Structures are given as structure tokens and as C-alpha cells.
Automatic annotation (TrEMBL):
SUPFAM superfamilies associated with the record: Fumarate reductase respiratory complex transmembrane subunits
Phylogenetic classification of the source organism: Bacteria, Pseudomonadati, Pseudomonadota, Betaproteobacteria, Burkholderiales
Topology term for the membrane: Multi-pass membrane protein
Keywords recorded for this protein, A-Z: Cell inner membrane, Cell membrane, Electron transport, Heme, Iron, Membrane, Metal-binding, Transmembrane, Transmembrane helix, Transport, Tricarboxylic acid cycle
Broad class of the protein's primary localization: membrane
The protein's required cofactors: heme
CDD domains: SQR_TypeC_SdhD
Protein name as catalogued: Succinate dehydrogenase hydrophobic membrane anchor subunit
Species whose genome carries this gene: Roseateles subflavus
Pathway, per record: Carbohydrate metabolism; tricarboxylic acid cycle
């Protein structure tokens, strides 16, 4: 008995669907956060200033939602930028350097944003 053709072995990272779904979920979370924040700003009679912003972010539920949104934003950005580096930067050493730089930068930005949030 003979076999015809070759068996195709698909290789790669195998995270396309997971990252596609993560991009959509994080985008929806960020959109909902924007709507909630805009509603709180537009539906108030207080003047737009520090007191209003401090009041909005002093509520524990808003701190939690903002924290989740910051993490979602960082992950959303990581998936997008990582895909750009993987698609367009062919030199492995440069691509690794850009990945590390991107991760450090995103973690730093998320940490700074969380620090600002908890100081309010």
C-alpha cells in the first residue's frame, strides 16, 4: 500500500484566534470605559476641573474599572505592536530587541498610570 502526497505539518505560534479575540474583548472594554467616563463628565453640573476628576476616580468601583482598562490597554497594545514586529522585522536580533523594548515600555506606562490612579 502506498501513500500519495505528503502530510502537511503546520507550524507557528498558534495564537492567532486567541489574539484576535483578545483584541476585540479589550477594545470593547476600553470603549465601555470611555462611555462610562464620558457619561460621568457630561451628566454632572460641576465645573470641569480637578475636583470633578478626583471625585470620579475616588470611587472604588471606578478605580477597579480603570485598573482593568489600563491592563487591557497594555495587552491590546502589546498584541498589536508584537504582530507588527513579527510581520515586518525579519532580523531576529532586532525583532527580539524591539519585543523587549516594547514590553518594558508598556509595563512602565501601565505602572505609571496605576501609580497616578492610586494617588488620586
Amino acid at each position: 500500500m502506498s501513500t500519495y502526497g505528503t502530510k502537511r505539518i503546520v507550524s507557528g505560534a498558534h495564537y492567532g484566534l486567541r489574539d484576535w479575540l483578545a483584541q476585540r474583548v479589550t477594545a470593547v472594554l476600553m470603549a465601555l470605559f470611555t462611555i462610562v467616563l464620558l457619561a460621568q463628565i457630561l451628566l454632572t453640573t460641576k465645573p470641569l476641573g480637578y475636583e470633578l476628576w478626583a471625585g470620579i476616580f475616588s470611587q472604588q468601583w471606578m478605580k477597579f474599572v480603570t485598573f482593568a482598562t489600563i491592563i487591557a490597554l497594555a495587552y491590546h497594545a502589546w498584541v498589536g505592536v508584537r504582530d507588527i514586529w513579527m510581520d515586518y522585522v525579519k532580523h531576529v536580533g532586532l525583532r527580539l530587541t524591539l519585543h523587549v523594548f516594547t514590553l518594558v515600555w508598556l509595563v512602565g506606562c501601565a505602572g505609571w498610570a496605576i501609580q497616578v490612579l492610586w494617588r488620586l
